[in-house]
Design brief:
Elements (H helix, E strand, L loop, with lengths): L5 E8 L2 H11 L9 H6 L9 H16 L4 E9 L8 E12 L2 E10 L2 E11 L3
Antiparallel strand pairs: 1-3, 2-5, 3-4, 4-5
Length: 127
Amino acid sequence: MTAGETLEPFVVALTLQRLSMEAAANRDFNPIHIESETGRASGAPDAFANTTLIETLLEAVVRDGAGLGAHIAVLEFSMLGFNAVGDRLTVGGEVREVADGRAEVDVWIDGPRGRTVTGTATVVLAA
């Protein structure tokens, strides 16, 4: 990783099946994440991604850029909007700084309603 490097973005299509599988894996069966009607009743466009799925997507873009030997020491993010069924999400990042074997990385998720997640990761790079 080098300062200024853009991480290779990837696209994920959110389907009800994907949200249901993730909810089952993490035992997060809150209906807002797996039932379209309940998601809409909560004010969202549809059922929407939970925090664990968002964290997983951000970790994936960092790991792809840093390699499997790196260690994500800190990952902090803010969810600014819904990531709902039917959305195509683009997950990306950019290396802000590299020093002393660590990288500071800005990460984000963009969807059809704009940037829905922003955050930062501190990565301990592989020796």
